[in-house]
Amino acid sequence: MSDSSAPATPADLRSVVAGATLPATAEPFPCVNPARTQEVLARVSLADRDAVVQAARAARQAQEKWARVPAPVRGQVIGNISELVRRNKEELSQAVTRDIGKPIVEARGEVQEIIDTCEYFRGEGRRLYGHTVPSEMPDKQLFTFRNPVGVATIITAGNFPVAVPSWYIVPALLAGNAVVWKPAEYAAVCSWAFYELFSRAGIPEGVLNLVYASGEETFAGLDAALGEGVVDKVGFTGSSVVGSRIGELCGRHLQTPCLELGGKNPMVVTADADLDTAAEAALFSGFGTAGQRCTSLGTVLVHESVHDAFRSRLDTLTRQATVGDPGRTDVVYGPMINERFADRYEGFLNWICDHHRVLGSTATGRITSANPREGFMGDPEAGLYYHPVILDGVRPEDKVFTEETFGPIIGMASYRHLEEAIELANRPGYGLSCAIYTNDPRSAFTFRAGINAGMVSVNNSTSGAEAHLPFGGNGRSGNGGRLSGIWVLDQFTRWQSLNWDYSGSLQKAQMDVGEVEADLEFRLA
Predict the structure, then answer these.
(1) Given strand 258-260, what is the order of strands in its sheet?
(2) CA 503 to CA 507: how far, in whole Å?
(3) Where are the beta strands (DSSP E) in 348-423?
(4) At residue 184, what are phi and psi to the nearest 5 degrees?
(5) Are 363 and 372 in contact (CB under 8 A)?
(6) How far apart are CA 33 and CA 97, in angstroms?
(7) Active site residue ranges
(8) Cβ contacts of residue 324 below 8 Å, gap of 6+?
(9) Do 465 and 481 meet the contact criterion of CB atoms below 8 Å apart?
(10) At 196, which helix (H) or strand (E)?
(11) What radius of gyration do the chain's Cα atoms show?
């Protein structure tokens, strides 16, 4: 096992297009360990907009040949990726922990998600089914086929730097597409490791291209590539604001992107709920990965009859939770992913109002020797560590109620009846994930029917995905596209129909259809 506490030698990382490494830049971007901000893990040469277009052109050139590879053989390549990741699981997990400060236990789970995704899709190479459809005419057959869309540009965030890319890239490759992947530049080391494993699985050059670039250069390059017609599908995981821009851009080119965006994920706790389990789930949902998941808990809506009892349990659990060095196996969460997220989180803390009761820790803000967290593990001065915050008494008009707060902060509010809880849960306009804790099946199904989220959990947390279940949201959380399972294939294939008439004459649909004689006036005596 590699030691996450060992100092890393900075690597020089550059984009790869059609198997060739792009030139280094004069001022590379420093990729920093957020748990020890003085440790530079890599220096990343960020490409410009022209490189994004260049990568799309290379992908276009390679895609047709890749699409002609039989799908079961492409499935074997996906199986090779699974085996490579399995054999390098600990090294890749440690890279994730160093890059973004995710606790090593969570990082191992994230890498396992790649393996699970590959294991699911290795078999889909033998199940890219079309249909045989009966015709309304004799001597005629109808068929449907799944064809790859072509070139997919995939832009992913850094909070799940290897799992989420696999959700896009694995099915895209399996279906016969070529890919241009733009990862988060601050998670460059684990992204490079991910690319290296994939590139050794039997993928031809040009079918998978890696582009390190800033957001604005990527957007400009994507605009040009769409205009040139060398990108056929865009997949994006990130903020709702950027997702809206990408959706608008793709719409101008008559494309529908797959957008997996932010969330303000509610958890409803009913009067009959198991409060101990619900509090444990709220702790994991709200503070795992330091609250930096798209599925992180936003607001807990607790029935007024158990509000105080639940608050006491959650406050106690949160105060007891270990925060600190992500290399330890007993920490609930580590640092903020990157300085930009720490700065933004500081702004969210300004949304705390006088009517909020602040719970969960010995203080708020950044954890330092002057602003300590009881039970902190490690050196708080070394990284971007923040106190967990529970805000009781949030109101529907509060920003902390309506807006995504990417960080270790959750709100609490009371409700009187389930219909009110559902209305409050839907009010922010996001629709990614949600949960309800109840022992009443009627409450569970009423909640499911009324909530606008794409994913609903009953007696489980708002976070947690499985490789064979659809993942995605609605409203401010996405445009209805789904990742994972068979559903993601609709993002990376297009249906083609074939009608084959072997009657020897022209048969015209809806006009030459045979008629059946019937006595519809007949009535039983």
Answers:
(1) 20-21, 16-17, 208-210, 178-182, 151-155, 233-237, 258-260
(2) 8
(3) 357-359, 389-392, 409-415
(4) -70, 130
(5) yes
(6) 9
(7) 260
(8) 331, 334, 376, 377, 378, 380, 385
(9) no
(10) helix 188-199
(11) 25
pLDDT tens, per residue, the chain with 525 residues: 344 445 546 889 999 999 999 999 999 999 999 999 999 999 999 999 999 999 999 999 999 999 999 999 999 999 999 999 999 999 999 999 999 999 999 999 999 999 999 999 999 999 999 999 999 999 999 999 999 999 999 999 999 999 999 999 999 999 999 999 999 999 999 999 999 999 999 999 999 999 999 999 999 999 999 999 999 999 999 999 999 999 999 999 999 999 999 999 999 999 999 999 999 999 999 999 999 999 999 999 999 999 999 999 999 999 999 999 999 999 999 999 999 999 999 999 999 999 999 999 999 999 999 999 999 999 999 999 999 999 999 999 999 999 999 999 999 999 999 999 999 999 999 999 999 999 999 999 999 999 999 999 999 999 988 889 999 999 999 999 999 999 999 999 999 999 999 999 998 888 888 889 999 999 998
Angle (CA) 399 400 401, round 5°: 85
Q: How many C-alpha atoms does 364 have within 13 Å on its Cβ side? A: 17
Q: Where do we find the tokens 């399972």?
A: 485
CA distances (Å), 330 to each of 105, 106, 108, 368, 431, in order? Answer: 8, 11, 14, 20, 32
With a CB cutoff of 8 Å and minimum separation 6, the contacts of 344 are 406, 407
Closest CA to 47 of 228, 189, 216, 250: 216
In 3-state terms the chain splits into helix, strand, coil percentages (rounded to 5) of 40, 20, 40
- Per the CB < 8 A criterion, the answer to whether 13 and 194 are in contact is no
| β-bridge mates for residue 234, sequence order | 153
β strands within 376-467, DSSP E: 389-392, 409-415, 433-437, 455-458
Cα angle for residues 95, 473, 398 (degrees, 5° grid): 95
Is residue 47 helix, strand or coil?
Answer: strand
Give the sheet arrangement for strand 297-303, strand by strand.
357-359, 389-392, 409-415, 297-303, 265-269, 433-437, 455-458
Alpha helix (H) ranges present in 200-274? Answer: 215-228, 240-252
Q: Is 405 helix (H, G, I), strand (E, B) or coil?
A: coil
